[in-house]
Amino acid sequence: MGIGWLRVLCLGALGASLAANDYTAEIANGGLRARQETHVVMRSERLLISQTKIRVEYEFLNESPAPVETVVAFPWPGYAWSAGAATYSPEMWEFLVEVDGVRVAHQTEIRARVRDRDVTALLAGMGLHIPSFGHFDDPVQSGKETVPAQLAALSPAALEKLKKVGALNRNGLPKWMTFLTHYWSQRFPPGRVVRVVHEYTPMPGGSAYGDLAMIQRPKTEGTAWRSLVDRDFDAREPGCPDEAFSRSYLARRRALLEEAPELTSTGLGFSWVRYILTTANTWKGPIRDFELIVERNPDELVTFCWDGPVEKVGADRFRAARKDFRPGKELTVYFVRSLKRQQ
Length: 343
Known about the structure:
Immunoglobulin-like
């Protein structure tokens, strides 16, 4: 699952204070919340998306006559435990931040929610590792279910309490959503461009049983899809396959079915990377110069929705650009590949 755009937030509720000319946002009880920044503009932004790397290069300019000191935060989209799918990876902590060419340390806030209820303190008080859902990578057999190790170690009373608040389902499996936000303190001097770079490994979603309809109108229901849905991102965006993509997709599908008529699926694997665009609107004005680069593997098809021309700038690179860009929706990039048959 992929993500993006920086948010501006005030540091006060994190237990520190800054002598700033103007606080740009607030941190409310229960988590970080953005508010409109009125002095700092995003002068340019270059976004690279692939299945193995997301890199973003920003240029910010403080147009006021005084320094702006604040916290800049990077939120991951919420994710949930899902049977048979890895929704958490230690790579989520390997988040690179550079400011004017110098690496900057960051902190990470961890929150857990069940619908609109924050259950972070409850889970942490029981010693549960929230991001990994109690270490789902270390499963233990508990009755008829295979459950994360830390959940298996809880007392019956603790398990019942978690079920009562909706953090576990009736089989004792995790139901909470996890939200991670990386953040760091940032100073924007007046009249000087500040260059911020961040880079990380996304966690793509995937399916071996999709078809064109899934890209045109993504499915968001069912256990295997729970990690794709949260309160702030209600569904994946469609992929807007054009005529050329559809022709290539159908040609590959026909070739696979001719080669292996016994296939019960399309024989094509779908992956997608999500990226949250609209939080860019918390900065002053539009993004003055925006560029998106999407990279695919040589054997893949790629499609995503974009309001404007998309040009092919290499065998496996695509470019889209906008001036004075105000994102109005989120972005999902779909990658389609042929699956190798089991021998």
